[in-house]
Specification:
The complex is a heterodimer of chains A (165) and B (98).
Chain A: E1 12-16, E2 19-20, E3 29-39, E4 50-64, H1 69-75, E5 97-103, H2 108-112, E6 116-124, E7 141-147, E8 150-151, E9 159-160, E10 163-164
Antiparallel strand pairs in A: 1-2, 1-5, 3-4, 4-7, 5-6, 6-7, 6-10, 8-9
Chain B: E1 2-9, H1 17-21, E2 31-35, E3 46-54, H2 56-67, E4 73-76, H3 81-86, E5 90-92, H4 94-97
Antiparallel strand pairs in B: 1-3, 1-4, 2-3, 2-5
Classes of the chains: A mainly beta (165), B alpha+beta (98).
């Protein structure tokens, strides 16, 4: 029966550093924004008359439902014990690993795409508070993610944050 | 040596695609591709085409064609198709090869 739309609905599973993160609460939220420096001129007051583009940023939010070793490694890059932070001075990129999202087979998302989305470099975003509930309810942990880019090709100044298939 | 892997989603595949892209001379047989997270019997998500033998001008022409077809993905393969697929969460679906 034909339909009047191409809505790409369907859940996604995720691996981080090849580890299955498990079940999520709600959708995976993937965010991206442009970075630009506003241009103003006195003849135009405070009206922004243009921007000098300065790249962009990519972020994500996943609500993890399970409390497995893989989930804890994903949430806290300093180790599954979660009570330790590493020595200062290490780069964020050192803790990043690939995040691969895969659409559930048989869903519109698996047909319309992306079937997989791969962020090559991902870790919990610095400054984000993990809020871990301990009580007679589900332990759903909101994890904000930061993604780092790789160059589109050798020598290019274009930055690729993910690859869709 | 320019070695690439072209991925076409099953729903986007059509006859004449490789000719339109100008890569028929460089493309091998279609590879049955599925996500690593799917079981074998879930079917295919993509057809993969290993591209070998392109010269720089062929690659630049393909890049321009890919710009107009964002639903198609082209990866560096370095001659290792399995690794290139694994890096984006995919694999050859061996049960579909039989």
């Amino acid at each position: 029966m034909p339909v009047l739309h191409s809505v790409p609905s369907g859940p996604y599973s995720a691996t981080w550093n090849s580890l299955d993160i498990g079940l999520f609460e709600g959708p995976v939220r993937l965010q991206q924004s442009l970075i630009g420096l506003p241009i103003r001129a006195s003849q135009w007051g405070q009206t922004i008359i243009d921007y000098v583009m300065q790249g962009g940023g990519y972020f994500g939010v996943i609500v993890v439902k399970e409390w497995t070793s893989a989930a804890k490694q994903f949430m806290w890059p300093f180790g599954t014990a979660m009570g330790i932070v590493d020595e200062p001075g290490v780069l964020f990129s050192n803790y990043c690993h690939p995040l691969v999202l895969t659409a559930l087979t048989g869903t519109p998302a698996a047909t319309l795409g992306p079937v997989t989305r791969t962020y090559p470099s991902c870790a919990t975003l610095p400054g984000h508070n993990l809020d871990i509930t301990c009580g007679p309810m589900e332990r759903n942990v909101v994890v904000a993610l930061g993604f780092l880019p790789e160059p589109v090709s050798g020598g290019s100044r274009k930055a690729r944050f993910f690859t869709d298939t | 040596m320019i070695q690439k892997l072209l991925l076409v989603r099953v729903c986007d595949s059509r006859s004449g695609l490789l000719e339109d892209a100008g890569i028929r001379p460089f493309a091998g047989e279609p590879l049955p591709v599925s996500p690593r997270a799917w079981p074998d019997d879930a079917g295919l998500s993509h057809y993969g085409f290993a591209l070998n033998g392109m010269k720089l001008k062929d690659w630049q022409a393909l890049l321009a064609w890919l710009d107009a077809h964002p639903e198609i993905t082209c990866l560096d393969s370095g001659g290792n198709v399995d690794e290139a697929l694994a890096a984006v969460g995919l694999r050859i679906n061996k049960s579909a090869e039989e």
